[in-house]
Every structure is written in structure tokens, then in C-alpha cells.
Amino acid sequence: MILNKILEQAHALMKKAVHEGGAVIDGTCGNGHDTLFLSNLVGNDGHVYAFDIQEQAVENTRARLKEHEVLERATVIHDSHTHIEKHLQEEHKGMIQAAIYNLGYLPGSDKSIITKPNDTITSIQNVLKSLKKGGLVVLVVYHGHPGGKEEKEAVLRYVSSLDHKNYEVLNYSFINKDRTPPFIIAIEKNV
Ligand code: SAM
């Protein structure tokens, strides 16, 4: 297939933005799939900051990184992504190459623990400040669960309001699927 599935599309975008030795963020690490992907992109000299509010997610992510022998490339943090700024090393502030978020709930876990509109928007606002020029934020928006529609609408409203002189904002979605297929919002910072 030529058109990537949505997660592959998100990873293809991250690949373009992330270079070896860079610092990046996984705002919702869950079971650590994106954290592992990012750890491989940044290499031995780079760093991944991964966040989740669920202890189990933090443990699962650490275990996945350990299994692939890249645990030292990441700091896996049991905290909300609204507090990203306070966990960044001084040298990485304003130098973040990219951030990824998978919105929604963690598959196979408690479906009532979901990303929330206000926290997600606060986190994006903070991450945009920490991003270097040319940096990228990728949001994979799952919205079929209770609360998902409200978050989708709030996030779309917020990113649509970003000043076009400072940010390019793109929405990738499959438009011929029924129900509520996930989609991508990509924000590139050009200042
Ligand atoms: N990328 C993950 C993976 O590879 O498995 C899947 C992420 S899952 C769709 C969403 C995750 O966001 C859940 O693990 C949930 O605990 C987490 N989450 C919800 N609110 C959060 C917050 N305020 N800060 C950080 N993580 C949060």
C-alpha cells in the first residue's frame, strides 16, 4: 500500500523531524511503542523524555526499552504531560526537535483514564515553547471513546487558532471510513 496506516504516517513524520543526537518528547508513552521508535531515531547521543500518568504505563515503557537495550536513551517520567517543562534538562529547553502524543486511552488498560482537553492543550502550548525552529509536534487523535469527541473538538479549535506566521498546521485524515477513524494533526514551528 502507498498510503501509510495512521501510526506509520505519524512515524514517517517524526522520522523527518528527528535527527541523531536530538532531544524529543513522547507525551503519552503508554506501552512505549513510540518511545522505543524515538529512542532508535535519536541514537546513543540523543534523549527521549516520555510521560504518562499511569504507573503501569511507565513500567511497561521502561521494560520495552530495557528489552531493546535502549533504556539509557530515555527518561520515563510518571507525571502529567502538563509538567514537561520542569523535567527538561537546561540544555534541552528550546531545543526539542519533536514531540508525539497519542490521545485517548491505553488499549488493554483502564478505558476511563483518557487524555483530557485542557491538559492536552496546556501541554501542547508548553511544548511549542520548548521546540526549536523547524521542530514538529504530532498528535494522533483517537476520538471514538466517551470524551473523545470533546477532546478532538477542543484540540482542533486550539491548533486552528495558532498564528500561521509562526506555525504550519496540517490535518491528515482518511475521509472515506465510517465510524471514527483516528487522524493526525502535525504542527511545524517556523520561528
Ligand atoms: N503511545 C502509547 C503506546 O505506544 O502504547 C499509547 C498511548 S495511549 C493512546 C494514551 C496514554 O496517555 C495513556 O497511557 C494514558 O495514561 C496517558 N495519559 C492520559 N493523560 C495524560 C497526561 N495528562 N499526561 C501524560 N499521559 C497521559
UniProtKB/TrEMBL annotation:
Report whether Transferase shows up as a keyword of the record: yes
Q: Which GO terms describe its molecular function?
A: methyltransferase activity
For this UniProt record, the keywords arranged alphabetically read as follows: Methyltransferase, Transferase
- Give a single Pfam family match: rRNA_methylase
GO annotation (BP), single: methylation
* CDD domains referenced in this protein's UniProt entry, alphabetically: AdoMet_MTases
Q: Does the keyword Metal-binding apply?
A: no
Top-rank taxon, per record? Bacteria
Q: What is this protein called?
A: Methyltransferase domain-containing protein
